[in-house]
């Protein structure tokens, strides 16, 4: 799916999507300290939406908190953003985050399961066991932890859109990144299955962000990563697509 066209009287899905995009939302993004998650957080804040973000590097989290405040300076929601130190691999930490947000009445309208990691380029038999485990624990189990604790909260609220960040390598494969490919194919499968479990009013999609110059891309592409777009140029397109998602998209595999 490409960025939806502006609403027209004859296109019901786009009318719904357009109306939805105009509302101010609370968006939970995992993995906000750098790369795509950070750029998306800043873009959404600039548009007036409230961002709840998490990742693990404390100094990057505190600088993001002030960058978000500046991005939404002219908006009435200035300083309402919440940035937390949460490791998505920890089921209990994600559970604590969900509990916290319920207490603060900051239940997300949209969740972007973005936190992810990749193995260093290596053939599968050369990938250290702990590296394989980290990829699986973050990309699959981290996503599942968020689904486990936030879907019930969204069901209670009777609405919610969940975006599981996938990859081109969740739909194709490459040498040297087998653990990562396995994890992103799992994200696609997980998304399709969960879509069948959600009640009306909710949707979950898998979203391939494209190929963007981030630390992750530098890890697998080396210096060629510089040939690809920056996260800052990607974020406006991604934000528009995500804000236009509706329940009609449930179960879809989309690409920015
Ligand atoms: N860049 C691309 O071309 C591309 C292509 C396809 C898919 N993707 C996907 O897009 C997403 C973002 O990738 P990126 O390129 O922006 O990668 P990145 O620059 O490496 O950023 C990854 C982010 O995830 C966070 N993170 C990692 N492990 C975490 C954990 N256990 N708990 C919480 N946060 C964690 C990192 O923060 P801390 O280390 O501070 O926790 C960081 O903020 C990933 O899911 C990736 O697989 C990227």
UniProtKB/TrEMBL annotation:
PROSITE patterns in the cross-refs: ADH_SHORT
CDD domains: SDR_c (cd05233)
Stretches assigned to coiled coil: none
Family matches, as Pfam families: adh_short
Entry-linked InterPro entries: NAD(P)-bd_dom_sf, NADPH_pterin_aldehyde_rdct, Sc_DH/Rdtase_CS, SDR_fam
Family: Belongs to the short-chain dehydrogenases/reductases (SDR) family.
Designated name of the protein: NADPH-dependent pterin aldehyde reductase
Species this protein is from: Rehmannia glutinosa
């Amino acid at each position: 799916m490409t960025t939806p066209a502006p609403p027209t009287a004859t296109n019901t899905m786009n009318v719904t999507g357009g109306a939805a995009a105009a509302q101010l939302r609370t968006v939970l993004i995992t993995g906000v300290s750098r790369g795509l998650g950070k750029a998306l957080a800043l873009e959404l804040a600039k548009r007036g939406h409230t961002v709840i973000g998490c990742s693990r590097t404390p100094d990057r989290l505190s600088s993001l908190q002030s960058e978000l405040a500046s991005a939404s300076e002219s908006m009435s929601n200035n300083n309402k953003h919440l940035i937390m130190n949460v490791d998505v691999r920890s089921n209990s930490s994600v559970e604590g985050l969900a509990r916290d947000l319920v207490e603060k009445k900051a239940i997300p309208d949209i969740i972007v399961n973005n936190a992810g990691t990749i193995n260093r380029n290596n053939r599968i038999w050369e990938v250290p066991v702990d590296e394989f485990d980290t990829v699986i624990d973050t990309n699959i189990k981290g996503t599942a932890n968020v689904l486990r604790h936030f879907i019930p909260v969204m069901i209670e609220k009777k609405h919610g859109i969940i975006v599981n960040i996938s990859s081109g390598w969740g739909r194709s494969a490459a040498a040297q990144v087998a653990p990562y490919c396995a994890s992103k194919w799992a994200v696609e499968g997980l998304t399709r299955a969960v879509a069948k479990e959600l009640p009306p009013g909710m949707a979950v999609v898998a979203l391939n962000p494209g190929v963007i110059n981030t630390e992750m891309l530098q890890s697998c592409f080396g210096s060629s990563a510089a040939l690809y777009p920056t996260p800052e140029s990607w974020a406006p397109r991604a934000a528009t697509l995500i804000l236009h998602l509706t329940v009609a998209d449930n179960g879809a595999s989309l690409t920015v």
